[in-house]
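Homework-ish question, so no full write-ups if that breaks the rules, but can someone show me the predicted structure for this set?
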Amino acid sequence: MSKHSITIEINGESFTREVDSRKLLIHFLRDDLALTGTHIGCDTSSCGACTILLNGKSIKACTFFAVQANNQKIETIEGVEQGGQLHPLQEGFHQEHGLQCGFCTPGMIMRGKELLEKNPNPTEEEIRWGISGNLCRCTGYSNIIKSIQYAANKLNEKQEEAA
Amino acid sequence: MIMCKTSKEIGGMGHSLKRKEDARFIRGLGKYTDDVQLPGMLYMDIARSPFAYAKIKSIDKSVAMEIPGVLAVITGEDLKQYNLHWMPTLMSDTQMVLPTDTVMYQAQEVAAVIATDRYIAADAVQALENSIEYDSMKPIIDPHKALDADAPLLRPDKDGKTDNHIWHWQTGDEEATEKAFSEAEVVVKEQVYIPRIHVASIETCGCVASYEKAEGKLTVWMTTQAPHAIRTVIALVAGHVGLSEERIRIISPDIGGGFGGKVPVYPGYVIAIAASFLIGKPVKWIEDRSENLQADSFARDYHMTVELASTKEGKMTGLRIKTLADHGYTDAAANPSKFPSGLFSIVTGSYDIPTAFTEMDAVYTNKPPGGVAYRCSFRVTEAVHAIERITDVLAQKLGRDPADLRFQNFIQKDQFPYRSALGWEYDSGDYAPALRMAMDMVGYEELRKEQAEKRARGELMGIGISSFTEIVGAGPSKDFDILGIKMFDSAEVRIHPTGKAIARFGTKSQGQGHETTYAQILAEELGIPAMHIQIEEGDTDTAPYGLGTYASRSTPTAGAAAAKAAHKIRDKARKIAAYLLEVSEEDLEWEPGKFFVKGAPERSKTIQDIAFAAYTNHPQGMEAGLEATHYYDPPNLTFPFGSYICVMDIDPKTAEMKIRRFVAIDDCGNIINPMIVTGQIHGGLAMGIAPAMYEELIYDDDGNILNGTFMDYLLPTSVETPNWETGHTITPSPHHPLGAKGVAESPTVGAPPAVANAVVDALSHLGVTHVDIPVTPFKVWQILKEKGVIS
Amino acid sequence: MIPPTFDYLVPATLPEAIALLHEHGDEAKVLAGGHSLIPAMRLRFAEPSHLIDISHIPGLDYIREEGGFLKIGTMAREVVLEDLPWISERYPLLVDTTKMIADPQVRNLATVGGNLAHGDPANDHPATMLAYRAEIEIIGASGARTVPIDEFFTDFFTTALEHGEILSEIRIPIPPALSGGCYLKVERKVGDYAAAAVAVQLSLAADGSIEQAGIGLTNVAALPTRAVNAEKALRGQQPSDALFAHVGELAADASSPADDLRGSAEYKLTLIRELTQRALRRSVERAQGRS
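A: Not a homework solution, just the prediction itself:
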């Protein structure tokens, strides 16, 4: 069958659509659902600009068919701010000047989200390896690392407050 | 330590204000060209040549046209009917939009498909590419062969052309330099090749062209760094089909990095515009990364023979450079028109060299056209690489420490303004403290000791210095134009009754932070808080005319225009204040945000009071409103400078290299936003080490590109990139209204020679004097093998 | 950039998947992690008529020790190897290898099984499985069969998998006590294929001599390569730098790399020589518990 009806939960909302088997998840998000926050930067799965979370795991939406995401949960940059509150990563990127043109930023933030969930206290080296699948041309990476460290500190503070 | 004249609340110069534009980007709400979706929008994709040089035998449109959803196939023959198959380049050469008989480089556009869906367009391109027949010919790939007697004539379309030579350009005193060389006690000479590279911003190029038949209006969302220039070029090129400049609107939305790669007019834009014009529906064209790397304009590709003459004590006495410039099949460089090799003549650099001569010859080859800037003003990277490499070569020859040799030859502070041997008047500079600061930060003397100890044990480490002078801010109208349009820039500032403001500019940020920094300039000059000043760029229907953002020109030109416009506003504001306070203008003094009466400071009017009065209570006979526009013609370029030091460790067994430390001291004059400036420096440094160690576009003898994707065209990740250590000196520009110079490209210019010098330094004890960039482990392995270090 | 059309099928069991492969013939391909297949499809280097997605079949992603083997199910994702602390402790060679594959996002989806089934000598796991002397379980229409790793890679991009068969499990013999291993890879940048890489797995006898050794080489020939003579030269010997240097030469002798954008064949031989020695040293350290 080359046309499929799929149901995907995206940022907490359920979408049911008909798609061709070959429709890449990145195009489904951007063109079919007008969620244009996730970007396309290459055609060889090399740049990470298309990074989203699939069931909490960061993946490249350009190397995944929409049909594979049937009945799965997806989180994109549009879903990161919750109830008008920026996520500490978004705050971090703003406070630490972790973005310039903004094109790689959604991918960096989504990758950062999984990175910090798995490793709440990453070293600088762990962050560098952690974002090695995300290319940036503008920032030279130093401030991106600071942005993620800012978020790690913020998240740990929140954890301590909650405890 | 930067002293700010305004408070943090106002946020003028020197404050590290967080960026206003971040709000949309961190939420994924930026609006880039591919985000534009219009009702009825069609998709365009391009069929490309597999050959570097071939005659087109036939194009069979039918197979593609049979695919449901394909509306049109456009070829060169179709465009020829409208005389749109060729277009001018920015250097007044000509470039094919689509070919009618011959293709000139691999991946060249051959035909375009318009379809209802981007997937169908891709299928149609595959079908179309399979249906095009070629007779391939042997291409010219090596520029040294372009002028051989038996080389094919690549541009028979150019009247009177009999060979592949494009132009010869020279500057300096040939005779005096010849004399200096013949009398020199020491002469060093190296062949320095800087290969083709590609800016590879993370967003590729593209457009959405929307022609509305009823209104006769064309709107194009386009990844362009220079929207007004594009509009004028389209009006000139396509005026004959009815596209008139007042009915053309170019919108440069958010751009995901430019770096010079989004300055040229690419064939894709023109075809999309033509398609929309003919079909009457919006047409979107967004190139793939492979297309971007393989077909868009390249940067660099200079083969330089560099010679430096000196006394045996190390005083430089002459510089001579001969260059072969490979431009691909047409000169589509993005340079000011009188400077076919850009600002290369900055090549005497930071040194007081009494005489110099440089000449270049540009040739055609079967490769993509260019070259563009790759974040470096105009050909300044090539120049700085040449002088900084040859300076180290000289130091090595004389057995001198390279820092020492630089101190000896620096232009001294009291020599500014300094007229270089190649005709530039450097506005200001103070080179020695920057180098000293870099040396202190890196711990230079200790590193030299460490190097000596390591060398004795067979370990390899190198220290590379680069002390560069940049030249940016093009430029003064007497010398600078692009296609005849002078390179001023503009600011239009309007204050609202409630004391807030909007300002529009002729430049276009691609991440440089203009929405914040321009607001800070105006905050400085008007005392209105930066947060209350809305900045807009990029829409040619509303923005004042400008030449766009590239070559680090925005602060020097549009930033200055903002200051000047603010001064005009202050002049009117003073009149209003005088009227409100019932004093004469001379009795008033200004501090950021208010006029007050001399000697009676409690009698004052804020700029907000004045703004309100401008609409409600202005003097009789005065026009209402509080606004000004200024087109700024810079009196000179600006000359940022700096000193960088790279410490490199090399594994003597595998030749793997790692940058241990990179120290960068930059002087960009007065700093608007330190946080943004530092960010620009980090980014520029990353785009400096990248060509030094990783990037190069590689062709085989048949013109096939061997690394046309990100699999093999290597952009450094966060792992390859070191921690940047930065610092500043501040030597204001005497002619810029804010004393600022521009900064974003300095690091891309200054870093490669620091890296190359570090590698050569690590190997100098083996007799190595030069290595071309990119310095790869394989190249270093070859050297170590040749020298017997690796058996 | 845009893949060609195909039909997409989601079987519920492995036998169903196999039946679909038979039904749809040669142009039907298995979709597991998809990170070799989908990139090839996007560039239209691969144009399968059918994709048979096995990633939703339950129970294929296990990693467990059983019956003397570490058993890895075909859908086990690379990232799980990094995340399980006991894998890092007992199978350092495996973890070294997985960390060198592509980048974190790819490792979240790419499978160990896929890395082997693709048959690419430039992939990282083949050399590692050679070093471990692994076995590959293959399931086809007529049931399961086991193929020793030395018989699994048959040609350039070709494995013992016939059409209609699916790689179902990888079995690594549980290393004895006093075992250690190491994977060292030289790449132009993170995420690249190897200019050259070496996988070493060895175990020591009680007297400290090398009892067993496996050495696999990445991207030095048309097939993943075992350095047979290098392994032989280690057996029964006390570790020493001189021994390792000699073994490095033998590993280089077993290699016939090609000139390419990463460098010349001779350059790669230098890397093999050097990486073999370093991997041996590290493996011995780990075996002695000194890591």
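Now go work out the reasoning yourself. Hint: The radius of gyration of chain B is 27 Å.
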